[in-house]
Amino acid sequence: MQGFSLLELMLVLALLGLMTALSVAWLGPASSIGSALEQLAAQSRQLAQQAQLSGRILGLRWTGQHPQSVQLNLNEGRLVWTPLDSSTQGWADWPQELRPDRPAAQEPWVIFTPSGLAQPVQVRWSWPEGGERWHWQTSTRIQVQPAP
């Protein structure tokens, strides 16, 4: 009865290590994009709930680098959108390759009111390997479809 030599065993372990490293590198960006989109969907639902419970008008906008939660405030007789205190937390690791089809703006593209969504909104999220189209029909539900 013959067994494996130490060299054969080392070679198999080296190949397994290489395959594992390649699979982690291949799955890494997709999983960070997926988690960023999940975080954004959760943030959206939370903003809708906050708007309903607090009676405030809240929104989501794109800063050019990451999404940002904002609220409508009266400032010196003018209505202005200002960032929520917690709107910068959690977006530091936003994947740079994940972009919406909206430009950076002071105005939010999704607006949550105490009575629900101000109007239906569609946003296309793109990254090098794919994309998704998000459609807010109500303030608590986002319909997600793969986009080419």
TrEMBL record:
Q: Which GO terms describe its biological process?
A: protein secretion by the type II secretion system
Cellular component aspect of the GO annotation: type II protein secretion system complex
InterPro entries, per this entry? N_methyl_site, Pilin-like, TypeII_GspH
Its recorded name reads General secretion pathway protein H
Read off the Gene3D superfamilies from this record. minor pseudopilin epsh domain (3.55.40.10)
